[in-house]
Specification:
Mean pLDDT: 93
Distance between the termini: 31 Å
Oligomer: single chain
Strand content: over 45%
Number of strands: 11
Largest sheet: 7 strands, mixed
Structural class: mainly beta
Helix content: under 10%
């Protein structure tokens, strides 16, 4: 089970920090953890993903639209994956989802993910 939190309303240029809490050791044991977003009338869009790898060093990847503004981080002790979002723009407005990916999947694609949270709304005005 994955549960997102931290969404809200913010003005353009502001920041938000999303968290995704996994049950048990879901985050640490997953092949990859991803963040996706979906705006009304649009398809779900990959935002970023991280490969936990079980250690303190991990690899992260970002969509071009958020590169340099968003940062993914892991907290193994808390079994959470976080998304720090800075310099927010109105076009970042969407429901944000975290997901746990299966072994060998292409982690910038939704079909790689087998478990999803219910999402948290981010609104940028």
């Amino acid at each position: 089970q994955l549960v997102e939190s931290g969404g809200g309303s913010v003005q353009a240029g502001g920041s938000l920090r999303l968290s995704c809490a996994g049950s048990g050791d879901t985050v640490s044991r997953s092949y990859c953890m991803g963040w996706f977003r979906q705006a009304p009338g649009k398809e779900r869009e990959w935002v970023a993903n991280v490969y936990p790898g079980g250690g303190v060093r991990y690899f992260t990847y970002y969509a071009d639209s958020v590169q340099g503004r968003f940062t993914v981080s892991l907290d193994h002790a808390e079994n959470t994956v976080n998304l720090q979002m800075n310099s927010l723009k109105p076009e970042d407005t969407a429901m944000y989802y975290c997901a746990a990916g299966r072994e060998g999947g292409l982690c910038n694609q939704a079909r790689a993910y087998i478990s999803w949270g219910k999402g948290t709304q981010v609104t940028v005005s």
